[in-house]
Amino acid sequence: MEFTTFVFYMFAALAVFAAVRVVTASNPVHAVLFLVLAFFNVAGLWLLLQAEFLAIALIMVYVGAVMVLFLFVVMMLDINVERVRKGFFGNLWLGGPIALAMVGEMAVMLGGKYFGAEAMPGLATAPDYSNTKELGRLLFTDYAYPFELASVILLVGIVAAVMLTLRHRKDVKHLDTARQLAVKAKDRLRIVKMATEKDLPAGEGE
Amino acid sequence: MEALVLQLFQSFWNIFGLWDVLWGVIQPVWPLIWVVIKIVVLLIPLMLGVAYLTFWERKIIGWMQVRIGPNRVGPWGLLQPIADGMKLFFKEIVIPTKADGALFLLAPVLAIAPALAAWSVVPFFEGGALANLDAGVLYLLAITSVGVYGIIIAGWASNSKYPFLGAMRSAAQMVSYEVSMGMALIVVLMVSHSLNLSDIVRAQGHGRFAEMGLGVLSWNWIPLFPMFLVYLISGVAETNRAPFDVVEGESEIVAGHMVEYSGMAFAMFFLAEYANMILVSAMVAIFFLGGWLSPVGFLPDGIWWLLGKAALMLFLFLWLRATFPRYRYDQIMRLGWKVFVPLCLVWIPFIGVWMMSPFNIWK
């Protein structure tokens, strides 16, 4: 067995194991951490496909930022494990068909008729081939409009999320940092010049 | 280098006449052994550096506060970090009741592993990187962004209030400052046309001043000065060092995520923090201060320049700690999102326009 084949099976097996544990882990924090493991292994698979930019971006964006915030939220939930387990068969009528549809889609992909090695063009493997540069060139030339469209959708999402969670609370004493920083000593402190007291003759100060 | 090491091994084992037998066994795995040798050669000085950075920190802060600092163990207190290490090594690791045992022990490992793995792409001298990755900058950003898991998991798995507060603070702070760090690096890779760390250093060796023998003036820190500051300050925040050390702020939440840890588990967090400090210092040196390049033409380039620049940045870290009071939490967030990110967003198009204009200095 070639070394890359061995690495592929290792990543693939770990990714499948982690993905199964995401669903079956009873503790949601464990589930999130298994999802992180799954991301790592998928990134490894992408590296094997020489898609180093996508692989590293997956780790940087999903593992480094998205899952951290996910964990942040999940950690604060107080979840009753027993209750989560309960509705399994009640939701099966919906979950089953969705799972079957996904398996069907994967079968079309992996069947190789439309997306196999023969159907898709091979990799350009010039010695100075840079995945990142090629991706950047395509994104900002051929696919400029879809790319901009995607970023506008993301922007709308950001604005919507901010508006949904923004509460103008009246009972908060808001601090304006610019005003705080602009304060000078003389705004807060008044120095009063006054003559020192004269020394009293002995015995009079009692 | 590889041939030389092999020759040394060969002459050593030939004394016993065992070389041919040995080579027959190890030849198939020699590339792996060679990589492991290189990793060990990199990690031992790094760990020593971490140990003596803690000592140096205590000495520097001592002097800045008109104290003497550690001076009892060994000459001038030089064996203090060894004594500290031995103490931590022999202490019991206490796992709190109802803590998540597996995750509790996994957290320090997750903290230190990225701090060490990031070193694999650092170029120490011309061609002197463990892995000369073409996507080195991306790798670095990805690996360092994983470091936050150690802290978050430690906070959650401890099943205790202060660690949990520390974990929540760190999650928000480290994600925020990664954004400004990454944006500052976008400008660096714009002007160096590469994601490879060695190429970024080499790109700083060109320019009008470099040809005049004044390389120090053609490094990135002058044309990209705002980004230099953003990266440096974000680096301090990213490593949770003073004045951004709210994650462990001892006067507020005792020691944050490290409260429940003892012995080597605690020491691993400590090692990770200091290894990250050295890493950020080396990164500042590579991205903005010309890496291994000599500041003046008549002195040779070499690893000593990188180490010297990193040491200077490390001194800055310690100086900051001795000088500034701790930031308030909302001010940390404000600095990251409302000052650094807009500054980067202005500087990226500015450099872009500069590069397209006839005044481009990065050709």
What is the element layout, followed by pairings?
The complex is a heterodimer of chains A (206) and B (363).
Chain A: H1 3-24, H2 28-48, H3 52-76, H4 81-86, H5 92-111, H6 131-140, H7 144-165, H8 177-182, H9 185-188
Chain B: H1 2-14, H2 19-26, H3 30-64, H4 80-89, H5 101-117, H6 136-146, H7 148-157, H8 161-192, H9 197-203, H10 208-211, H11 225-238, H12 250-253, H13 263-288, H14 303-323, H15 329-356
Helix pairs in contact in B: 3-4, 3-13, 3-14, 4-13, 5-6, 5-7, 5-13, 7-8, 8-9, 8-11, 8-15, 11-13, 11-15, 13-14
Average pLDDT confidence of chain B is 85
Tally of discrete structural domains of chain A: 1
Strand content of chain B: under 5%
Question: What is the tally of helical segments of chain B?
Answer: 15
Structural commentary:
Chain A is an all-alpha fold. Chain A is 66% helix and 0% strand. Chain A contains 9 helices and no strands. With 363 residues, chain B is mainly alpha-helical. Helices cover 66% and strands 0% of the residues of chain B. The longest helix of chain B has 35 residues. The radius of gyration of chain B is 22 Å and the shape is globular. Chain B is built from 15 helices and no strands. In chain B, helix 4 packs across helix 13.
Overview in brief:
Chain A is mostly helical and 206 residues long. Chain A is 66% helix and 0% strand.
List keywords for this structure.
heterodimer, A: 206 residues, mainly alpha, Four Helix Bundle (Hemerythrin (Met), subunit A), 9 helices, 0% strand, elongated, B: 363 residues, 15 helices
